[in-house]
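Sequence in, structure out. First:
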Amino acid sequence: MVHVQVRLCAVIFLSLMFAGCGSLSSTQPGSNQPAGSPPPGSNPTPTGSSFVAADFPGADCGAKIRAADTAAGNQSATIEVTAACGTAWTTQVVIGPSHTLLVEDATYQMTKTVLLHDGACVVGQNATLAITKPVDIISNADVANSNLCVKTITLSAAGLTGGISRGVYFKNVNGFTISGVNLESMVTHGVFIDDGSNNGQIVNNNCNGVIQGSCFLAGNAPGFATVSNMNISNNTASNINAANGVFVIGSKNGVPTNNITINNNVIKCARDTSIEIGDGAQSVSASGNQITTCAAGSTGVIVRSAKHITVENNSVSPSPAATNMIGIFIWNKQGDSEPFQDVTIDHNTVTGFNGLTSSGISWSSFVANSSNLSITNNTATGNTNNFFARTNNIINLVFTGNSDPTFGH
């Protein structure tokens, strides 16, 4: 009988030991820590998938983020950043594979680019990343990456006046989403998708103010870059000082920038071109966009030396009207990599381009082999020239169903 009691007491004692050990491992950094838990900055060991950067050691918030990211290891994890981490990031932030950087409730001043490995994401909650030196704000970390995202955050270069800085710069990225991002006062470009990138979504973003370049650029000069399979839709772009709202362009080793959709964007006051489908691009559709030009010499939509292009159901008008404005312009010039070919301009509404030498829809080719241009069913009213042919050496021009059955020269 005595042996039974001793055995029973031993079992109870061991059970209590195991229960106690389990309770000690249940607390994660950043939660309400019980008495005896490690204080912030003592390099705790998280047991869950959320890692609070402020709980890790580091000379600045960037260093704390890197320490938290290292602790997260190879699991899918969230690195949580609040103002308690510190709002100055001088150490470069690098986000590991399948990790999400969750940035919350503050403006964070940065001097170095945030770099993303495969499957990494930057997500904001009432947060701004503001650069204080001319660097890109977010970019991919490796020669090639896949499945990256940037969502619901403000990226700002408002403190800069020159240099090279892009809000998001991706090169050789297969699969990405840029959504809900506010791009404020960028210097070079808002979003630049460069050579080798494909399968991307650039949707529901707002770009306000670019000093030198475009709000949304996909591709690069012909011979240098090509991108493919992208959706650039439901964005707003305004106050672009020198270049374009949306710009797709390029080819490389005989492969064109291709399969791009540019739909339902609102573009106001791009002082060069609101939407440009540029030299080398193929299989591009621009539909349902609302465009307001604002400066002399600016254009709503340009199709330049591109192939298999559809521009339809867009509305284009100036505010205010000025000299040498064009609503939609299809053209080719000597020196371009190829003529334009198979271009359809259909069911667009172009109004109010009544400044000197301005026109609603215009076209020209300075080489003899541009071909298959269809200008059909468009409404052009109140323009100095509703439809204007600058040159006529185009093979198979179809002009029918438009509001004005004639076009000037």
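Second:
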Amino acid sequence: MEYQNSEERIKDYVSRMHMHNMLTNLAREQLWQCLITGLQANIREYMKRINKDPVDLAPASPEMCFQAIINVGIVVENEKQYKQWMQNQRKLKEQTAAAAKRRKLEHKLEHKPSTDKK
């Protein structure tokens, strides 16, 4: 049994599983169960949410099994990357606002009129 590593891209996992299947030549149903079981949990859960058919129902051919896993995995990976990008954008916006606020305060302090009487 092979599992998708936490940082492994879906295409790399499917490629690795394809190589293993070339050696073992699993039946389509067995191949599908191995692919599903080995997926990262977030991809497997996404598949369960979007599929009309039960997840344990294998596609019509081994190649369709591999392609189905890739299609779903890419969607999940893209969503993860988008969320990370949005989080980075929020952090950048916060940092930019904080820097602008500091500059404004420094500018006020530099140009503050003197209260010394002579």
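Remark: The helical segments are 10-24, 28-38, 41-50, 62-110.
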